[in-house]
């Protein structure tokens, strides 16, 4: 194994719970995960990120300081990962850092996507060259800037049968991989983001462990119908979304003025909403029978049960069957993207984001 076989992938997703850090070795075959580390955000950091993500009025001082603060945490996650793996920074070719998205606006006259977690700070505090700012390069090529994890799905999960990779994070997305190679991907809508909001509001928990609170409630069909009326679901792909649309304010506007629905029933309905939007997205675009789930949602036993029951004619499992732990697929994707960028290779995102050309993703920040 040469020195430049090894890369680190870092990401904090729309759930804003912490940093996924993964050490990966790349060979001619599939990625080999050597070590992993989850670096949890404390409540103060999480609230700072959520404040920025609400689109509230902020000062440049707030934005700049939080950018550096998150960069320091990404560096700390990297150094903790290296310590767990008992290897030196010199053994790593590069870090691929997604950062933390605070605003994603892929449509309109001036599309942009903003991630914080200063890569200069990461490179300085780790001593490792850092590749970052992946999404804006795709946007500049007139893509959506998301989803990007399907790039790894295509590279690692393509098979001799049509299949769908379902990534359930704060937002859910699907990657359709066909035997003929005419692959595509898009965000289906909320994953855990609304359920996380609702349980935090009522129980001060960051997420619904195993979906137990949702399991205790009953689906309210009237509320579910209202949620499904969102125009986003009728848009053609490629498309992407985020907290800018699906957030607590969006949900509160959908609830009856005088809330008569039990809190646990709202949670059950939000879980059903995630399941139904994933199911309808799959059935609308493909006849593939194999479904592999990754992301934090793969750990929600009740969500997985409901998804499997709604797709009885499908084979539903996780990406573990394809050789990559579902918790670490997305971080591995950014390690892989860093390896491609360091090698100077263009990546074809056209099928997934709608970009008009292949581009080298990300900027390189030398250690």
UniProtKB/TrEMBL annotation:
Signal peptide from the UniProt entry: none
Segments passing through the bilayer: none
Gene Ontology MF, one: ATP binding
Gene3D superfamilies: 3.30.420.40
Pfam short name (any one): AnmK
Annotated protein name in UniProt: Anhydro-N-acetylmuramic acid kinase
Entry-linked SUPFAM superfamilies: Actin-like ATPase domain (SSF53067)
One annotated GO biological process: amino sugar metabolic process
NCBIfam families the UniProt entry points to: PRK09585.1-3
InterPro entries attached to this UniProt entry: Anhydro_N_Ac-Mur_kinase (IPR005338), ATPase_NBD (IPR043129)
HAMAP family with a match to the protein in the record: AnhMurNAc_kinase (MF_01270)
């Amino acid at each position: 194994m040469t020195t430049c076989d090894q890369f680190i992938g870092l990401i904090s997703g729309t759930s804003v719970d912490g940093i996924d850090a993964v050490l990966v070795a790349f060979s001619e075959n599939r990625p080999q995960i050597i070590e992993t580390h989850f670096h949890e955000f404390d409540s103060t950091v999480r609230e700072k990120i959520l404040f920025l993500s609400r689109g509230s009025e902020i000062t440049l001082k707030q934005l700049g300081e939080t950018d550096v603060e998150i960069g320091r945490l990404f560096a700390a996650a990297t150094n903790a990962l290296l310590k767990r793996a008992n290897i030196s920074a010199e053994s790593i070719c590069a870090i691929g850092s997604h950062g933390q998205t605070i605003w994603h606006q892929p449509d309109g006259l001036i599309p942009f996507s903003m991630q914080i977690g200063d890569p200069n700070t990461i490179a300085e505090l780790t001593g490792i060259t850092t590749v970052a700012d992946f999404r804006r390069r795709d946007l500049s090529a007139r893509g959506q800037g998301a989803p990007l994890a399907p790039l790894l799905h295509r590279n690692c999960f393509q098979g001799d049968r049509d299949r769908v990779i379902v990534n359930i994070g704060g937002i859910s997305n699907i990657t359709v991989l066909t035997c003929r190679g005419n692959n595509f991907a898009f965000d289906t809508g909320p994953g855990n983001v609304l359920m996380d909001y609702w349980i935090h509001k009522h129980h001060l928990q960051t997420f619904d462990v195993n979906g137990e609170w949702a399991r205790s409630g009953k689906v309210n069909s009237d509320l579910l119908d209202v949620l499904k009326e969102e125009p986003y679901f009728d848009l053609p792909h490629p498309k992407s979304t985020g907290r800018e649309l699906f957030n607590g304010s969006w949900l509160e506007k959908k609830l009856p003025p005088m809330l008569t629905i039990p809190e646990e029933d709202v949670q059950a309905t939000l879980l059903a909403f995630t399941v139904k939007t994933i199911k309808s997205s799959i059935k609308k675009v493909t006849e593939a029978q194999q479904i592999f789930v990754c992301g934090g949602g793969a750990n929600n036993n009740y969500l997985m049960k409901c998804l499997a029951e709604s797709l009885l004619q499908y084979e539903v499992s996780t990406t573990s069957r394809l050789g990559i732990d579902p918790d670490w697929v997305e971080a591995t994707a950014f390690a892989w993207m860093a390896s491609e960028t360091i090698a100077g290779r263009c990546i074809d995102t056209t099928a997934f984001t709608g970009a008009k050309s292949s581009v080298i993703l990300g900027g390189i920040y030398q250690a």
